[in-house]
Amino acid sequence: MCGITGYIGDGIALDDGESAANDGATGDAAGDGGGFARVGDIVHEGLRNLEYRGYDSAGVALVGEASGLTVAKRSGEVDNLTVPDVADAALGIGHTRWSTHGPPTDENAHPHTDCVGDIAVVHNGIVENHEALKTELSDHEFTSDTDTEVIPHLIEEELAAVSGAGGLLDAVRAVESRLEGSYAICAVRDGDDRIVVARRGSPLVLGHDEDATFVASDVTAFLEHTRDVTYLEDGDVASLSAEGVEVYADGELVDRETETVTWEADAAEKGGYEHYMRKEIHEQPESLRQTIAGRLDVDAGDADLDVSFPPGFLADLEEIQIVACGTSNYAGRYAARLFEDLSGVRATVETASEYEFGAGRSPDRTLVVAVTQSGETADTLGAVRRANAAGARTFAVTNTLGSTVTREVDDTAFIRAGPEIGVAATKTFASQVATLTMLAVAIGRERGALAAADARPVLEGLRDLPGAVQQVLDNEDAVREAATEYGDSGAFFFVGRQLGVPVALEGALKLKEISYDHAEGFPAGELKHGPLALVTPDTPVLAVLTDGARADETMNNVTEAQTRGAPAIGCVSAGEEYATLDVSLPVPDVGIAEPLVANVYLQLFAYHVANDKGRSIDKPRNLAKSVTVE
Ligand code: M6R
């Protein structure tokens, strides 16, 4: 997830007390006590407002009639970037990056340009077919490792073939039809007085001010200047000029509604949500799309995480040991079953702080997989160091490029969930499980343990996951009502079987972490071996009742609890019905990914219970986002 923004207009006179973004490049005084923000200042300010979407490099491209195209970019946070003071700039675009292809270097920072530096492009999303396109562009000079760079070069090709006033617009339209994956793009060109933008799968919103237009991944970028916005739809290409905006869909000029944003500035930083946690829960369709982009080959029944193991290593592999803490540990538990079922390898999960390599194991036949969102958790790093010392091959699944874990393991797969600010992990759990599922398929296929026909339904489930999660999010009101009705209970029990067990554990962790209520998760069959003694009408049971998680047997255990008066809330595969449930929440059919979708209901349940109690949801007491002490 990256942030993109753009502005076309004459600059903005600032009121007394308002400051332009780029302290070094503020333009002329407005003459009445305030200052004046030039195009570069406005784009820079927009990037600061979008930094929550990514912060490992930033850049801008400014276009002025006399100055032409000026590009500035560098690695590091937005404040590391000095935006050039281009006095005649009439339009500009900017980007703040969360790396997916290529490390956060100056070269990989956006904007990217064509061979002669006439065209500049910023991009959010992933161009899945960039390798094929790059091969086609073999006579072009590439200077970065990014997927994005193919876009300006494709535009360059198109412009060489297209002439006339509609040049950049027509070229972007032709190019976007050739891109596979998800993207939001802004393109500018030396000598052109327009910004051309396009979206498919990644958000893009226009802001309308008198004689000026803004564009951004999120209204946060420009909300202090205008509240009149137009949300572009998938497949839209728009041309922004001083005269206004033209939006095209399927080549036809279309009308897109303008609406007024009513959020206050603080809520706007959170995309209109009251808390980052809820925003991040709602980002899951987008973050999951990024996680799987370009990595699934459903037809071939394979997944590609761009990792290669030494020859013979996978064939001889005896054991996968997963090490992780907290939510990442539960993602690991989900994956352990998949490694056994799909990769045909024995898999164990250890709490990282407890991990020792273990006597009697063969280091050269063991893969130790560290799952860590931050890549900085001290307990997990300690486990990786013990595995390395034992001579095992180590592998990280993380969200954070350049994090310590990536420097200490042999291989890394990034989950590409984008920054997560809420202390409670939500979207990163989903992306960890999706990434680990792809790893399990890739290992299974390479070992010959998994037939393409058996891999295909798993990959189809992953492909359909973003849409399924969206359906759950659209049903949030049902969870909110359940939270209001049962949120004041004395304790909560979460149960499931098979892949439902890690989700039950995660559901309980989420609730206790942010609501401070007592919650416990365990395998449903264990209820009768002790915890049933605690069950009363004041202890709701939340159950994962999805296909493949032995739902009927779990329901028997839920009934045992109901017999003792406990209310029961079930996440149930669509089409199934358990008439005695007090609340039934439907889970769309995505095969073995269904418990992961059910988890989104549990995230929302935890959120609403905590919110009703007025808890400090994004920063729960006593907890930190990244725990860097053992
Ligand atoms: O950054 P990591 O994934 O290594 O963090 C591990 C745990 O500290 C983390 O998952 C923690 O349990 C979350 N706050 C749970 O929401």
Keywords:
630 residues, alpha/beta, Glutamine Phosphoribosylpyrophosphate, subunit 1, domain 1, Rossmann fold, 3 domains, 8-stranded antiparallel β-sheet, 29 strands, 32% helix, 24% strand, globular, binds 5-amino-5-deoxy-1-O-phosphono-D-mannitol
How would you sum up this structure, described in words?
There is one protein chain. The protein has three domains: 3-269, Glutamine Phosphoribosylpyrophosphate, subunit 1, domain 1 (4-Layer Sandwich); 278-471, Glucose-6-phosphate isomerase like protein, domain 1 (Rossmann fold); 476-612, Rossmann fold, CATH 3.40.50.10490. It contains 17 helices and 29 strands. It has an eight-stranded antiparallel beta sheet, covered by helices on one side. A seven-stranded antiparallel beta sheet has the order 7-8-9-10-14-15-16. Strands 21-20-22-23-24 form a five-stranded parallel beta sheet, with helices on both faces. β20, α9 (326-343) and β21 form a beta-alpha-beta unit. α3 (150-161) packs across α4 (167-176), α9 runs parallel beside α12 (427-447) and α12 (427-447) packs antiparallel against α13 (452-474). The longest helix is centred in the C-terminal third of the chain and has 23 residues, at 452-474. It is globular and about 80 Å long. The protein starts with a strand and ends in an 18-residue tail after the last helix. The structure holds 5-amino-5-deoxy-1-O-phosphono-D-mannitol (M6R). Residues 325-328, 372-374, 377, 380, 423-425, 509, 513, 626-627 line the site of 5-amino-5-deoxy-1-O-phosphono-D-mannitol. It comes from Halorubrum ezzemoulense DSM 17463. It is found in: Cytoplasm. It is an enzyme of class 2 (transferase). It catalyses: D-fructose 6-phosphate + L-glutamine = D-glucosamine 6-phosphate + L-glutamate.
